[in-house]
Design a protein that fits this description.
With 390 residues, the chain is mainly β. It has two helices and 41 strands.
């Protein structure tokens, strides 16, 4: 998985997790006068509930999973750490305040002022001194000229501006060259959109993109831009002239003349005619093997192969969906990343999930265990396969 893919996957997964949490079919709080309980329902496990550590006499359900009593505040039936129940108020759209703090979901928002805090949308809030995006301070320099560049309640809104800075929402800011002409550059897919420009400069999050031409600059991949001169990885100019002409080789690229790494910098240590992606983090040409971009000293390219993970979860040994990213072997050696594992036997080296509770993968050969535990399941496998124990 490329760095760009990892970043977009991480963002989308985070968004999905929040959306699932906010839209789950919770039944909510129940107070029978003696005990307060929190009830929920999901399609996987059905109905569930737990006792809430609340005083039934002063308990109040505030809606949207929030509640309080005279001493504590609650979110999803759990005590909100640091909240004062007596002064706790729910403001809506997953924000709340007490006498001292502002809360987003069940987390205190540092620096936010509860006395002047206002909720505009589920994403955009403000107090007397700053604006906030998804609970994070934006650190606005000039509130009077602050403008959100996009939907104020949009998952895909990334940029804002005032007359001093451009703001990559809640994460970074960068001095702005021209307020009037500044705008985001169209994103190519959901979750991207890290580039923006004015008539003088191109911006990537909290950085100026060095030497980029605003008039011709466009986003061509996640964290990759292109103008009439070259391609850019994040805010760095690359040696790639035309990103559209690159062919991907695993997490690397080739234009037929040069190889490039994930940051679009040249990787010329390999023979371009025989260089190929083996699997996972492993690459090879006719003579050498690489773990990512690191040469694996002592590896024989002709006999090298990744270690493939197997599972016993169904009661029989099955190949998992991909290779282990860190273990490989050739005819003579076993490797962890770019290093030889001293004494390891390539003929019997394996990585298996024996489905033992509390134990994940076991990495071993017939003589030693390199990762995991010496479980009964492993011993049975060794006895059956090699007629001996470790």
């Amino acid at each position: 998985m490329t760095k760009r893919a990892r970043n977009i996957t991480g963002r989308i997964c985070a968004i999905i997790m929040i959306m699932v949490m906010l839209t789950a079919c919770d039944v909510g709080y129940k107070n029978d006068g003696k005990t307060v309980t929190y009830h929920y329902w999901n399609e996987g496990s059905g109905h569930g509930s737990w006792k809430v550590d609340a005083d039934p006499k002063t308990f109040e359900d505030l809606g949207d999973k929030y509640a309080h009593d005279a001493s504590h505040a609650f979110f999803e039936g759990k005590v909100i750490e640091g909240a004062d129940g007596a002064t706790f108020r729910y403001l809506g759209k997953w924000y709340a305040v007490d006498a001292k703090h502002v809360f987003h979901l069940d987390t205190i928002m540092p620096e936010a002022d509860p006395m002047t805090f206002k909720v505009h949308t589920s994403s955009l809030t403000e107090d007397a001194k700053d604006y906030y995006w998804d609970g994070r301070p934006i650190h606005v320099a000039d509130k009077a000229s602050f403008v959100v560049m996009g939907d104020k309640d949009g998952w895909d809104t990334k940029w804002a501006k005032d007359k001093k800075n451009a703001y990559f929402m809640g994460f970074a800011s960068v001095p702005l060259a021209d307020y009037e002409s500044f705008k985001p550059i169209n994103s190519i897919r959901y979750g991207s959109g890290s580039y923006a420009a004015d008539k003088y400069q191109v911006y990537f999050q909290g950085h100026v993109v060095e030497g980029a031409d605003p008039a011709t600059f466009r986003e061509v991949d996640f964290y990759v831009g292109q103008d009439k001169y070259r391609a850019y990885s994040e805010w760095h100019p690359s040696q790639v002239k035309d990103y559209s002409k690159l062919k991907q080789v695993g997490d690397m690229f080739t234009d037929g003349t040069h190889l490039y790494n994930d940051d679009l910098q040249t990787f010329d240590e390999a023979d371009i005619n025989t260089f190929h992606h083996v699997d996972g983090n492993w690459y090879a040409d006719k003579r050498h093997v690489w773990w990512r971009e690191t040469l694996v000293q002592g590896a024989d390219a002709a006999s090298f192969e990744p270690i493939y993970s197997s599972s016993f979860t169904t009661g029989r040994k099955e190949q998992s969906s991909g290779c282990d990213f860190n273990y490989g072997k050739d005819a003579r050696h076993v490797f962890y990343r770019d290093s030889i594992i001293s004494g390891a036997d390539p003929a019997t080296f394996e990585k298996i999930d024996f489905a033992v509770p509390g134990v994940s993968w076991t990495v071993f050969d017939k003589n030693h265990i390199y990762e995991g535990e010496n479980t009964e399941a492993l011993q049975k496998y060794l006895n059956k396969t090699y007629k001996k124990k470790t």
